[in-house]
User: Fold these one by one.
Assistant:
Number 1:
Amino acid sequence: MKKKTVFVHIGTHKTGSTSLQVSLRKSKKYLNSQGLNYLETDWSYDLMKKNELDTEVLEHIRKAFLKQVSQCPQNNNIIISAEKFSGDPYTGYSNAMTLASSLKLITEGFDVKLLVYLRRQDSFIESLYSQSIHQGAHWSFNEFMQTRPSQLFDWNKLILSFELEFGESQVNVRSYDYFREASDTSLHQDFFEFLGVTDLTKIYQGKKDTNISYSAAALGFARRVNKYIEPSLQKAFRYGLQKSNSSKRPKLFLTSNQRADVLRTLHSSNQVIAKRKLNKAEALCLLKEPLIQADNEMSHKDKFEELEEIVARYIAYNEIRPSAEPREILRSFYYKYFLKNKT
């Protein structure tokens, strides 16, 4: 009897996973008609930071997964998607082998095809730092980098972890940078073609509704004030700042020397993974020369005026909202930050 196929999209982080998952959720009916069932994987949260196999947790997850599969039509294949499947990005995916082994146990008995998107490491590190600030961290970029040497982000090592469990031919690798630069829809097109779906007119491709990026100035502001925001208000603060001070422009934190060091350290590994798993065009995206960051220092006065502008936009956005949370957050800004810092 032919095995049921399980398509496993494991991210990685900061490669458009949320947008793809929104499309999967909103296109479920059409996917079902094409013999595909997208299953939610809340259990991925239990795996991401595991450093060793937890048989008790895995047994529970496998039972839940098999129950989900049993509720799908017999001839339909399965899709699961979670960047958490790739491991903990804040440790450079050092636990990828544990995640690969865990996924192998959970999907035992199925024909598993994995899809991984990789982002060039300098851009990945900067985006990961931005995400940490969105989530409430308040460290500087240099503090962030001090505990994360660039050699941690070895994509060839990451992919090998999954190939050892599932086989080289079962692990498909793509360049996120290539599809991001090609067009707004090319990432979705590649992803759904991998699943065997060719009529993208039936696939939802609207703007993703989460992970809106702060502007560079708003990100710096959030870093300064996160420690003053009560944990219960952090989500409301993030939402208000995203909506009132968003930007699609990439945030560049690495200096030119740091960027060159990161890519030089990982160049040999990137060459190997590019040769093994990427086509020529995608390989060029992974190996091309980095962007150069211009110096953009501001005086203390200019910085403070910019922060005041950010808060003014925040107030304008939130003053019409019925929730009391924005008012509590602004009160925190005023008493704990502005009065303390104003000169």
Number 2:
Amino acid sequence: MLQITNLIKHFTNAKAVDGISFSASRGKILGLIGPNGAGKTTTIRILLNILSQDSGEVLLDGIPWNPEMRNRVGYLPEERGLYQKNKIVDVMLYLASLKGVEPKEGRIKIYDWLKRFDMLNVAKKKVEELSKGNQQKIQFITALLHDPEFIILDEPFSGLDPVNQLLLKDILQELKSSGKLILFSTHQMETAEKLCDEICMINKGKVCLSGTLKEVKSNFKSNTIKIEFDGNGQILNQLDFIKSVNLYENSAECELNTPIDPKNIISVLNQNLSLRKIEFVEPSLETIFLQIVKSSSEAVQ
């Protein structure tokens, strides 16, 4: 188990991490979520011993975090970290060797992974010849070559098309089933909701929500409707009984101000839109996220 307790980190003019605490267990995926600049990456860099915290404790299986634990961790950074002018297999072998993987073993694993990602044809190419998505896949593979027990993924789906996103999700489920401890950092709420067992939401350096998705949503019960329609959905922002709207292409998730008879809702909506479907739903993680960020911004003002 990973345990983070009251983590604090100051930079020159700001407190980037302000008393963050959470835990993550093996065989589960923990989503570390929040807006850009929330403190997610700083927290991850502390976990990796790249940065030192000002105070607080990081424990892995009850042992204080130290540099000797690095080989137990696989890390996929958000930024590209591959040597662009070198051949792909050479780069992967080199990075694997830094984690103690012997060349013969590493080469076998590399080609097995490349085959799974349908990338055997690029093995002898230079990194700079690959697309953004293929470079992301190479970095993901490299993070796993030493069979780490603790995996940290920072925006792992960046640059991937839907087919490869699905493949990556399948692989993460396999890693989870094998007992890996997985920390998944993202600001994509829909992905986090589908993939994570538990979430820790950070905003302005503080934990503002944590727990299982069920627990989190139970704390944000609201009068929420999801509708599908034809017409201009912008009209929803002008209706008095709607508190907030997440508007998509021909659909919307709306939080109501007060409980209202569904028949009245349907009647009003049909006056303004061609309503195809309406249902009362629990708020999505994205709706909760937007509500928290908005409330935080209004409090500062």
Number 3:
Amino acid sequence: MKAIDVVYVLGTGTAWHNNEIRFSLRALEKNLKGFRKIWIVGTKPEWIKNVNHIPFQDELKQNADGNIARKVLRVCQEKDLTAQFLFINDDHLVMKETVAAEVPPFHKGDLTSFPESYFQQSFWRGRLWRTKNILQTKGLPTLHFDCHVPMVMDKKLFPEAIMQFDFENNIGYTMKSMYGNVVHGNSAPRLKNEKVTVFKPMTATQLTTHIKECQFLAFNDGGLKAEFKIWLCRNFPGPSSFEKASLQMDPFMEIFTWLNSPERDFRTGCMLFDKYGRSKKIKKYLSKEATRARYMKLEHQLREQLNYL
């Protein structure tokens, strides 16, 4: 089995205080086989260890894909980076045993077959529309490779492919579709049922049914609500070898840990609500001696608090 490196690129922060990559790394360590080193280009959260880090600032305005491409170009200059590497986002999870070097370059159809209304639904899709147009202008295939799954890239071919585009100009182009159509073109396989997404709030029951048997899972801020965070904590409970012991826990993780502790000490729970809760009236109510009614109120309030963290 040929071992290849894994590359993440990160910005200056996320909606969940960088816990997204925490769980991506946990899933990767559990399910991804045949990888050598982890590289992070950009800002590295202080709790991450055992990775190669390249600091890199985002300098392009309104061009997120351009900033990502610049980071990947930078890591491609590293002599120690394997010739091929797996590019993965912090909001991607590997959900079943997968060999890193064998991840296919999936696409999800020809961009010219998508209705014009598809490209008008978000700022990012406007960038995808520009990508479709520039690919057509260059006489290249127009497949949609930006489909929220990891992708194996070649550190020699990546710069050759990306530098064919003026990707830093205006709002830019989408990186994977630039690279995929130059390097793989129409030989790439179409994505079928290998991936599921969590792009909207779901209940615990919906998540269990929805996520079953997938190889890759992608999520965004719209899906990153309390129930999905709880699902992540329960399915990937232990720290990976890429996590330092943290002196200060994330608020969500701190409350979740208390709620799942067999003891659930009343006073410790009250301290948590004092720290993160909003209602002065409830804080005053909980400040008195422990009773069954107050304990039940505390537990309910902390569970509700998870929706706001």
